[in-house]
Structures are given as structure tokens and as C-alpha cells.
Amino acid sequence: MSTLQFKRTARLAAPRPPGGEVHLEPPPEVPRIIPGNIMMKAMPVVMIVASMGMMGMMLVFMPRQPAAMIMPGMMMISTIGMMASGMGSGKGQKKAEMNEDRKDYLRYLGQMRDRAREAADEQRAEREWVHPDPQMLWSLATTRRMWERRQNDPDFCHLRAGRGSQRLATRLVPPQTGPVEELEPIATLALRRFVRAHSLVPDLPISIALRGFAAVGLLGEIEDRRDVARALIAQLVTFHAPDDLLIAVVSAGRTKQLWEWAKWLPHSQHPTDIDGIGQRRMMANSLAEVEAMLDENLRDRQRFTRNAPPPPDQPHIVIVIDDGDISREEMIIIEEGLVGVTLLDLSECLGNLTARRGLRLVVENNQLGARSATGVEWFGAPDRLSIVESEALARRLSPYRMGAAGEAGGDSGEDPLAMSNNPPLLEFMGIPGDPITFDVQQAWRPRPKRDRYRIPFGIGEHGQAVELDIKEAAEDGMGPHGLCIGATGSGKSEFLRTLVLGLLASHSSTALNMILVDFKGGATFLGLDKAPHVAATITNLAGDLSLVDRMKDAIEGEVSRRQEVLAKGNYKNVWDYEKARENGAQLDPLPALFICIDEFSEMLTAKPDFIDIFLQIGRVGRSLQMHMLLASQRLEEGKLRGLDTFLSYRIGLKTFNAAESRAAIGVPDAYELPPIPGSGYLSVQGMPLTRFKALYVSGTYRPAGMQSAGESVAVRSDKRPRFFVPDFIEIPKEPERPLEPVKVAEPVKEDANEPTQLELIVERLYGQGPPAHEVWLPPLNEPPTMDTMLPPLDVTPDRGLTSPGYPANSTLQIPVGIVDKPFEQRRDLLWADFSGAAGHGAIVGGPQSGKSMMLRTLVASMALTHTPEEVQFYLIDLGGGSLAAMEDLPHVGGFAGRLDVDKVRRMVAELQTLIAERELRWRDQRIELAEFRNRKRRGEIKDDAFGDAFLIVDGWMNFRQEFEMVEPQIQALAAQGLSYGVHVIVGASRWAEIRPAMKDLLGTRFELRLGDPSESEVDRKVAVNVPPGRPGRGIVMDGSSGRRLHYLVGLPRIDTSQDANSVTAGVADLASKLTAAWQGPRAPQVRMLPDLLDHGQFMAHVQQAAPNRGRLVPVGVNEDELAPVYLDFDADPHFMALADGESGKTNILRTIVRGIMQSYTSSEALILLADYRRTMLGFIDTDHLLTYAVSGPQFTQNVQEIKGSLAGRMPGPDVTQEQLKNRSWWKGPEVFVIVDDYDLVAPQGGANPMQPLAEFIPQAKDVGLHIVVVRRMGGASRAMYDPIMGKLKEISAPIFVGSGSKEEGNIVGNLKPSPQPPGRGTLVTRKHGQQRIQFAWITPD
């Protein structure tokens, strides 16, 4: 039979029995009658006689005066009345006094009666605990009370024999009274009845001390004797360990079968001898055989004497004799008993031994008595136990044996606190069952107010349970707040786990909730978060200090919530609230909140202002039932800063030094504790220190305090199973085998996967009660996706993929993330509202803070709530290029990166054109933006393909540097756009990157993690707490409460995946689904300047658009409107062009010359073409060609000739005003001097052949002179000081700046050259300012 080791723990303390004496007051005495004075008795008679004599004299002397009789008559009547009242009043007063005394005494006896009954109940509870009913012993087996009595305990071998009356432990002392005749009879009778009734307590367990007798004989009917004997043995085997008590049975014949159940008892197994089936059973036919079995145990024992001390380190031996063989030659009989040996005789075979040195019990007619020389004294009813009940108990005990280290304290004198094991928590708390099967609802049953929130957590010095009651002192508790200090290795974490687990197991989640905080790691409360009571498990705050502030807000929010709940119902405190709820009020549960914070000292070091919330809880915690336990390894001086006044109980585990112990519990004793984890002191205000050893709940669970025994030895002989019989079985012979080396047994290692008490209890509690109010929501770690922030998505015919019926559809109000509101203990959607004055936006955050992600989320959210007809996006990405993934959305009209210079300009120009067109159209239609949106939504507007257009620029600082000329245009869009449905959203790394004038226009602002939190415009102090390295985290100001809240940006995807690394794939999936679901037109695409504008097609378009254009020379199209651009030589007679080689300089001249030839006749215009490189040779094939100069001398001569002609056109003094007005004083063609490669014609430092014409440049309109020069961009800045070009610049002649290097600096104003495609550049005129144009292309012959 396999065995299990049992480790005996410190004994549980029994209920305290009553004691002392009650001295009763004597009953009242009968008042004594004192004889009166003879003179006093005679005086009334004398007065009456005198009055009658006076009346007689009046009658004799004044017979006719009746009035004279009045006075004597009154005196006589008064005297008679005085006599009557005096005699009656004395007796009546004494009787009334006696009645009152009797009432007072009877009332006094009633009070004493209640006290006596209370003492009787306490005495009964103590007796029933020490000596329970034998029929209930099976329930104590395998529990902590099994084998609890040790040899040095005063009740060792004290056995309950039955029930009977016993004197009240609190002695009632009758009063000393006078003679009975002088006592008030009714009160005296009541006193006698009271003493007689309450001096004895009926039906109490009656015990016998088995050690005090060498033999105990049982007399009466044999079945009655055996029932009583089984009851006695059951108590022996339940409360005494096999190492302390042995039981042997002497029985023969048929009687032996009645005692076969005893073979299962561990106490009847021989300590050392074995037989063929295990340990030898100490059951024999004769007493001699038993003596032989126990020879080693009996050999050195002395002869029995009543006062002899028990033999040290020797078990007490009980030998049951029932119809066994007794020869009277046994040593026990000859010696008339041995010390530490008791014979239990059921056969009356011991002769005078039971009479001389033992006890003879008589069982008869359900009465139990003791026989003596004078007869039988009956004292109660016997206890009985059947064979079935006895065998059930024996089988329950049969597997257990005492372990080698089974004692924790006890006989060895070891400190009971230094025990190597601990009792199971549930058993220690009085909760029936084990951690796997215990009834949770029974454990959570409503408790009396005194026991509520009271939990045993450790064992005291004397084996008693040490309890902690977190209620306030006014409710008979120790709380509501406390402190726990313990050094490393002191068992602080385990103590906290035990305390928390005990509260969880004994209180429902409707009565108690918890917030568990571990500042450093999280191992302290690991696994407890599954319990329904736990409102929050907050760990590893040291790694993210922002969570400390979040926790502060959450706890402050819980304080505020509880105050609001109480104020709503006008309740004074939570006790009143719960009382009203118990009385039927329709109220939600408001459970007590236990806040346990580990390493709070380090928390205060990192966040000193957290002391404020501790102080707040200390002040209001009593009324709100918020209990706080602060734990730490160290307690520095001044760290509590006034909090210590609220800490009513303190727990000091072993500390680092005496000073910390003194600061924690007021004495240095905690520093002197032994280095045993869990050892500590409990200090409560107004109570002495209590030393304890905390329970251990994190160890591997072994049912009912048991541990597996070592591995069994292999059976080497007969392997067939054998019956377990009481008789001796010969040991079979082992077959001979070769000797093998002895292997040392390796210690059995505990399986790391075996569950602990804590894990099993928490697992059992899981789902058993309503979950706690969620005080702490998980931190913002996992970003939400669009499908979780929006209602269910579906495809509709009119809106495509969207959330049907969503109120935010078509409102320009969109969710872009989640905002954390710890004070309100909830999370809300983070909204971006572009419908009103805050229609422009800015997203600012440091590098890798999630700016681009938020822009993509914004676009995705808008795309899922608006159709491509309602909103359009134009994206400029100068950040990381992540916006490119949004280009496939049907809502996106254009995307441009750093290299798409023209497209960037074109986007801005497109929106400028949109504003201009809407301004004119809405003025004519007399509508505004709101009306436009409504009409657009109803489909009434057909001539405007745009809805609300959004220009999004990611990387604002880079944009300003790369597109310096475009920044003012975007600022103009922001200034005018909101009135016409144009929105600007920029992403920047710093707020300082956005100019103040621009920033004031950006009403919707989102701030992510900044590189320098001191630059925050939300709150510099809060910005420090935005965790780095977590893209999408930021802060925003709550408009309603003014609080600074943290938020987390959502992901632009609808595939439920929260992986930020695969957002590009998610965006592609989103774009494909949106495109497939939308059947309408896409967002208007950005119209770009063509890279090659064919002159023939261009002129066809010009002819169609402006057939009557006059002498305007068409040269190309502009970028803003893609409209034709003309050179008006009548208004601006000259033109300059600067561009690098291979960038279309000559084509510019070809286009201009072709335009002149088409707009002027040969009689109206002549062209002097200077073409040193002969790139335009043969281009002018009409009469417009005046001269084609290919060299310097030729060109110089031609200029001189033209000079002479122009000089003749200068107005003279005879020219009239009318002629000046009409320019009619001369006639002839306009002269166009067109120079290609001006840098070759007029090299710097050389002669300039055009110098003679310089004087005519200002009067060019009067003389019909037009100069058109084109030169390389290199050296353009210096060329502006050239006589000709300088003059042209002075008169603000139109200038075209084509492709070139920025290093040339500003050419005109702040315009710098930049690389451009051939024929493209910026045309600067006085009338139109700067405009990007593309020259038409003429293919050279």
C-alpha cells in the first residue's frame, strides 16, 4: 500500500473557555417593624379625650351657642384623621419599597442569567472544539487538525467518553445573607432557582485522561462496550500521530473479525517490523504476542504510578483486549501496569488491575457511569461508533504517515514561526473544500459586519491565526489604510499575494474590488488579474513613468465617481449606501476598493507629487470605502510627508536596519527577526505587537497538505496482489540475483508545471462573479483599425464602401484614433472636425512619431465616411513617401513627391483656380459653402466636379525649403480656402516650423511626441510623458474638461490587423476595396503642364479660344489655368529669357518669332535676328526678315543702321499732341531685334554691339523698337548689370527664367532658377506677376 507523508503544522487555537467567578448580590431583606413610643401612642387618645371634654363643657356652659362647638369638633376630627393616616401610611410605604426592591433584584437576576448563558455557550463551544462528536471525526481527518495533539500538550490522550452535565466554568458564588426569615421570600426563591439552574451545563462532552490509568475496563452489554471502545479509539487515532501513539488489539475467535477494521489504522502498524504485505499489524490472539511484538518499546518502561512522568521519546501504547488470551503471566499484568501503557479491557479479564490502578466504566441503558467500591456513579450518556463508521475513518487515515520533517515547532521546542510548511489557505480560513473543488458561492456568503474584510493571513507565536481587518476602527477593524515594509528576501511579495488571495476567496466581487500596483516588475501580482474582483493590475511603471500619471488620474477618477454616486442618493458613506441596497433600493453594487501598491517608495521618488493622491485617499477613504496598503523595501525619513497619520496598521517584515524597523512599527524588533521569509510583526494602533509567520500560497499544490512519497522499490518476488489482512504473513524468499551496486536515490524534483494554490484558487474564482468596475483600462499600446473605430462597413450603391447610417457620414467629422480618459475611466474616439472654423489642420511630431501615419489615417477615415464627390485629396509628400500608398484611393486627385516639382506647383495652382472660380460662381449664384454642400449632396450641382478639397503637405519644413515660392500660395489658400471648401493640412516636426501667420489659421491641431517636449503647445509638462518610440502617441487638450489627454492614432486599414509594419499592404487592401465598391467618378485629377506642347496643336487651341486676339503673340500655356500665355509687345515692347543649354532657349525664340510672323504682317514688323550659332538659319522664310546676323561686325553694322533709322523716329518739336497720342509722326514697320545666345553677342568685358540701342530702350514704344534677348543662365546675376539687360530690367521688361542652378541666386525679386524640363520656367510680368508656363515646341527643320 502506497503512503503519503503528512507534515503536522502548528496547532490551531481552540475557542477561549470562560473563567472567573460571578459573585451574586444578596436578595433584599424584609423591612423590620420597630415598636413605637408609649407616649406617642397615648397622645392621640389624650387629645381626643380633651376635645370631647371641651365639647362637654361648651354644652354645659353655653348650650344656646352652637358656634362654640365648631372649634372642639374640628380638633377631634383632625386628631382622628391624623391617627388613621399615620397608622396606614407607615405600612403602605414599607410595602411599596419592598415591591421595588424585589423588581430590581429580579431584573438583576435576569442580567446574570444572560451572562451565565453566554458563559455556558462559550464553554460548550470550547468543549465541542476540543472533544468533537466521534461520529464527526471523519471530517477532521486529512485536515490541519489531524494528529494535532503532541505528547507535551496538556490534553494528550484526553478522550471524550460521553455527554453529561458539568459545572459552569464561570463559578456562580452565592451571596452571604442573614437568616432566611429576614429575606424577601420571592427574591430568595428566584436566587435559589437561578443558582440551581445555571451552575450546571447539560450535555457537555465528558472526558477521561487515558494516561492516568494503567487499565480502563468497560462493563455492560458487550455490544455497548464495543461501541464505546470504538469511539475512544477513533479519537485516539484522529488527534494523535502514529509516532506518538500505538494501538494493539488482542482478540481471538469470532471476535477477531469485529476488530479487523483496525488493520487500516496507521497506529496499528508496527514501527519497524514488516511482513509479506507491508508493515506488520499489531493484532494478535494473546497479550503475550503483543508484548513480544513491542518488546523494544516495553522493555525499559517502569512500573505504573499515577504521578510518573511519561517516558521521553516513547509513544504511548494502548492495548485493546476483547476476548483474547490472557495468562496473567504477562509482564504488564505482573507489574500491574507500565508507564505509558494503557490496557482497554472489554472482557473483564484483568482482575483487580482496573479496580486498583485503573478506571471501570459501566454502560447500561444508554447511561455511562464509573464503578467504585461504593457502587456506580452515573454521569452521562455514552458516545458510540459503529464498525462501519470506524472502518471508514480508518481507511481515510490509512495512507498517511508522519514525514521526517513533519513537525513545525512542537516537541523539539523549535520556534513555531520557523515552520518548514504552512497549512492550506482555504482550510486556514475555515472554507471547506480544496482549491480545485471548493464552493465559491459558499465562501462568498454574506458575512456579519464584524467579519467583513477580516482575513487570516498568518500563524501567530502560539499557533493562533493572525488576522488583518482592513475596515476602519469605528467598524471594529484595523484600517482603513496600512503600511508594509520588508527587505529583499523578507517575503513581502508573498505576504501581499497571500493577503490579496485571502480577500478574493472570502469576498464576492460585489463586495470587494482591488487595484493591484507593482511599480517595478509585475511578479508580485502575477496571475491575480483573472479574478473578477481585480479592477486593475498595473505593473512595470518604472519602465514607463507616464503610466504613473495615468494611474493617478484613474484613481482620482474613481474617488470622484464614488463621491458622485453617494451625492446622487444623499448617502453619508458607502455603508449607508449598501444598507439601502440591502433593504431593496434599486442601486448598483458599490464594493469596497482595496488598493495595494508595491514599491510605493520608489514611485514617490520618481513622481513626488503622487503623494497628493495618497493623502486624498487617506482623507476620504473611510467614507468611500477605499482601503490602501502601501508596501516597500525601504522607508526613508520624511518620505510619507503627513501620510503616516492615516496609516492605522503597519506590518513590519525583516528590515535592512533597526531605523527602518523603528520607522515602520515603532520598535527595532523587525530588524531582529530570523531570516525566514514571511516572518514579521503586525502593529495596530492601541494594540500590542503581534508576531506572525505569513502563509505561503505560491508553492506547488498538494491536496490536503500531502506530499508524494519517494519512489517505490521494485517487487522482486511474487508480483501477484495480496489481500491486506490483520494476520502476520511470511515474507517470501527473494530469488538469488547477482549483487548490483546500490544506487543513490535522486531527490524528486517538483514539476515546474504543477499549479500553485494561488493559480488554482484564482482559476476557480474566474467567471464566478460580475467583473469589477474597470478603473484601469489597458495602456494605449495596440492601435485601433478603421473597422473597429467605425460601425460595420458595407457596400451601398450610392456611397460605395461605408458605414450605412453612420451619423458622421458627409459631415467632415471623422475618427482618427482613440483618446485615453483615465479620470473618466473610459476611452473615446479621437475626432477631427473640419466642418467649421477649424477646417485647416496641423499634425506636429518629432521624427518617427507617426505624422505620416496619422495623415494616412485621416485620409482613410474621410474616404470611408465621404464619397469621392464630397471630398478630394491632393497629397504632397516630402516626408518618408508613405502617402504614396494613398494614391490609388478614388478620393485622391493627385500625389506628388520631392521630385515632382511641377506637380506640386500644379496642385496648388489647381486649388487656387478652384477658389477663384467658386468665388465668381457663388457670387453670381448668391450661395455660400453650407448651401453648396447641401446642393452637392443632393446632386444639384453639375458644373463643379469638386467637393471639399484637401491639400495635405507632409514634411512642411522640407516643403518650405524646396518650394519657397509656393509657400505663400499655400498660406493664401489657408486664408481664403475655408469659405470655398478648400482645406490645408500640414505635417511638421516642430511648431516653430510653421510661421505664426500660417499657424493661426490651422484650427485642428494634433501634437505627437516632440523631439523637444519643451516646445509643446499643449502642455510642456504632460508632453514629457508621451512615450518615445511609440508612433502615433500624442496629447490633446479636452475642450470640455481642460485636461491634457493622451491619444493613439488608428491604422488606415480595415482588415482588423493591428500590425503597424504592414500598413502599406493594409492601405492597398483598403484602396482596392474602396475602388471596387465605388461606381461613380473619381476625384478630379491634377492637370499637368505637358512636357512637350506641340505648336501646331497649341495654335489650334489658341485660334479656337481667342480668334480675335489682335497682335498678341501666343507662346505657351500657364500652370495655373493651363490657359494660353501671350506676349503683348504693344504693352511690354521687350522680352528677356534666361535658361541653361539644352533647355529650349532657341525654341523660345522660334516660338516668339513664329508668333510675330503670325501676328504681324511684313509691313508691320521686321526682324533683325542675331544668331551666332546659326541654330535658326532659314527659320524666317518670309519678308519679315530684315537681316540675319551671324557675326559681331555684321551685327554691329546692322545695329548702327537701325540706330540711324530710330533716331529719325524720335519726335521733334513740331510733333503735335494728336500725333503723339496716335504715334503718327512716323510711318514704318516695328523693328524686332532678336538675339540668341546673348552671352556670345555681348561677352562680359568685351564690346557690346547693341550698346547703341540702349538709349532707345525707354522710348521703345515711340520708335517701334522691340528687343528680345536669350542667354545662358550661367552668370545671369552679373549679366543684369549689362547696359542692355540692365536697362531692360530697370523698365521691368517681361523676363522668362528657365532651367538653371539655384546657386545663381535671385534673378528677379526672390525668384531663383531651378532645374526644369525644356521650355518650362517662370514668366515674370508687371501685369500677371510670376506664373509658370510651358513654351510651345516647334520642331526644327
Automatic annotation (TrEMBL):
Keyword Transferase among record annotations: no
Major localisation: membrane
Compartments reported by the entry: Cell membrane
Keywords: ATP-binding, Cell membrane, Membrane, Nucleotide-binding, Repeat, Transmembrane, Transmembrane helix
This protein's GO CC annotations: plasma membrane
Membrane-crossing residue ranges in chain numbering: 42-61
Positions annotated to bind ATP: 486-493, 845-852, 1139-1146
Bilayer topology annotation: Multi-pass membrane protein
Cross-referenced PANTHER family: SPORULATION PROTEIN RELATED (PTHR22683), TYPE VII SECRETION SYSTEM PROTEIN ESSC (PTHR22683:SF1)
Name this polypeptide is given: DNA segregation ATPase FtsK/SpoIIIE, S-DNA-T family
Source organism per UniProt: Lentzea albidocapillata
